[in-house]
Structures are given as structure tokens and as C-alpha cells.
Amino acid sequence: MIEGGTENSMERKNAWTTYSEEQLLELRKLTDAYKAFLDAGKTERECVKEAVKLAEAQGYVRIDKARKDGKKLTAGDKVYAVCMGKMMALFHIGEKPLEEGMRILGAHVDSPRLDLKQNPLYEDTDLAYLDTHYYGGVKKYQWVTIPLAIHGVVAKKDGTLVDVCIGEKEDDPVVFVSDLLIHLAGEQLEKKARLVIEGENLDILIGSRPAPEKDGKAEEEEKKQKEAVKANILAILEEKYGMEEEDFLSAELEIVPADKARDCGLDRSMILSYGQDDRVCAYTSLAAQLDTQTQAYTCCCLLVDKEEIGSVGATGMQSRFFENTVAELMELTGAYSELGLRRCLSSCRMLSSDVSAAFDPLYASYFEKRNSAYFGKGLVFNKYTGSRGKSGSNDANAEYMAKIRAIFDRHGVAFQTAELGKVDVGGGGTIAYISALYGMEVIDSGVAVLNMHAPMEVTSKADVYEAYRGYKAFLQEA
User: Fold this and answer.
1) Which tens digits make up the pLDDT trace of 348-366?
2) Does a structural domain hold residue 267?
3) Is the domain of 88 the same as that of 164?
């Protein structure tokens, strides 16, 4: 709600109508930086690497360095920790003891995509393919016939790690998944949408040229003509990355859209890009953290992996990384105890920063208008998520929602509340319920997204700006 609201306080004003020229300039600067972040961070590893670069530029120091240097952390100090290159926590030490809690912005940096299987490379009828396994909730038919890029790392047996990025430069080749031509697709089009393209058919076409002959003969290992295209691909990989086929066994290679983040709409009011779920919240949370001065309570920005598949594994929110890092933080302030750690975690206040579904008038029957999120009306709060009977939900308490409302009203931040579609239509979850296990106060908040989980998603620039403003207000006053 803007500046105290109106008599009909349930009606949310379009934020675009409220901005001064100074705010519009700040909005453009923020969203341009956000688009650059999206282009630089198409995988969770790349996002964390970019976040580290931005944090260090603002004076953040790696927490293990502070420990080795024997530094005692005091108010104003800024440290960060990284888990396996895919999960990150940043802390700006506040004036109050950590035992009294922190103010946390938590978002995830993984997005739906196609992952390569461990034995992916094969040839069929003079065409070379990479076999994939899709990651997260996707409509598989959306991933065919679009330009795709390969991002990730290859870990070699000698311990070296090779970064791979193919398809992003102007002169780079791209890869893609083929589809059946319309002239032969009569039977295919009779299938249910989830079966039109099946998971095992999301293989990436990467080559069609046989290995060149040498002295009139193919090299010994390329004599079998049916493997000549595959052999040529392996030769390219060896030349460019020093990679052999067995190195796929210890590679993390992700297939993502090759397109860059673009302004969307003739009025340039929106952003079209891959990975905005949940990098729109990750970036605005990070920006708010980096732009916040020393506060009473320690401020934390937590960027996690694996949310799209249940927050599992060593880099997901269900891991002990966050808890262990807070223990290290307390030790460096000279205040660690097991009871103190428990008191800290239970006294925290958190915004689980994750996206919400934007109302789409073309599919209005799937939404309930009074409880939907709309473009241009600001940061979205989901008091509860889950599906149908709130299954798998964190249901924030009313007292906490009242505190957040008051903070945002004082700062003139545009916000709205929503549910993820009609009650019995579907639903979704976030990391909020996992954080709530510590007893902390947590509520879901984020940016409304059109085409969520599609290869290209759309957000409103006004909502991106309000998310940043809201997260910053939260760190200052919650």
C-alpha cells in the first residue's frame, strides 16, 4: 500500500502511477543491473559466483578467512560463506547480540532446466545427441525448437575444474531439442499435453558432421562410420576443454535457454528472461543486503539451491549449512553456545523470498481475482502456500503479518497479498516451512511472475523495484 493507503484499503494501487522522476531513475538502474545478473547467472553456480563478486566489492570477507585470521566480529563487520559453490549466506553484523536473532532474506538460485545424464553422448543415423534428465517442474513441450546453451563444470580426475559455457556469445553455436513436423503430427497432437513430448525425447542435438579423414583414412578409433559424428564431437570437446568422454561422469552440465534478458513490452515496463523464478527474489534480496547499513539486528541474505526439487541435498535448505554457519558466526563474535545458537535461530525474523503467480487474464478461470497477484502492484505476500488444503505449507501467524504491513506502510512500499491460483487447482511450496522448523517467524514474499517455470518468464519492473525497497525496509525495521 502506498503512503498510508486509501479508504478502500483492500484495493492495491498500481505502483507505476506513484513514482517520481528520481524513483524512475533508481528503478531503471536497478532493473538494468538485475538483467545483467540474469545473463551472468544462468545456473546456481554462476549465481553464487556473481553474488560473491558483488559482495566482495562491498567489503564482505569469506568467513573461513576471518576465522583463520583470528578476527573477532563486531558490529559493522561483513562476512559470507559458500557451500559447494551452489549455496551462500551473507551476514552484516548488527549491534545486538546474535542470540537475539537476525533479520533474514532467503531465496533460491536454482531454476527448472535440463541436466545431462552421466553417460549422455551418443550417435544415431549420423546425428550426435546428449541425453538429458529434466530438473524441476517443467512443461516439456516448451523446451523444444528453441535455442539452448550448455553451462556448467567438468571435474577431472586430476582435481581440475573446467568451466563450460557454450551458446551465449554472438558467434557461439547453440544446441536444441527437435520436434515432430506438423505434417506428421496428427497422432502426436491427440496426446495429453504432458505426453506430447516425453522426458526421454528431450535429447539435445549437438552435431551432424563426421570426423575428417587423415591421409585418406579416418583415425583408427573413428573407423566405424556410425560413430564418426560422435568422434568429431569428442575431438571438439578435447580441443576446447581438454575433456574426454569419461569426464561426463563427473560433470554438472545444465541446458538452459540461450536468450538474454530483454525489456518486454513497447513501454519497456517488463522483463523477459530465463530463470526469474527465483533469481528475481535472489537478486533483489542480495541488492537490499548489500545496500543496507549496520542495523540493530544482524542482517542475513541466504541464497540456496535445490528448492525446485524439494530443498534436498547438501546445498538445499534442508541441509545443516545455514545452522552450521550461524554457529561459526557466533563463535567469531565470542558468544557461541548450543543454547545460544537455538535462541538465535528461534528469535529470527525471515522473509522467504520466492515468486508468486501473476494473474493472467488469458487464463482467468484458474485464478481467484480477489486473492491473486497483479503486475505493477508491488511485492506479493503469501501468508500460506502449499496445495489444496494448505498441504506442505508454512502458515505465517497474524501477528507477524501485522508487523510486516506496518513496516511497509511506513516506508511507502507497494505490496499485495495472494494465493497460488484457485484452492483446488494446484499450488506450490517454498523454503519457508523449513526455516519455520527453528521456531522463527517467516512469511513468503516475492515478485509476481507470468509463465512461471517456462523457458522464458516475465516480471514487472515496478514489482522488481518494490521487492528491493520492501526487502531493504524489512532489514532496517523488522
Assistant:
1) 999 999 999 999 999 999 8
2) no
3) no
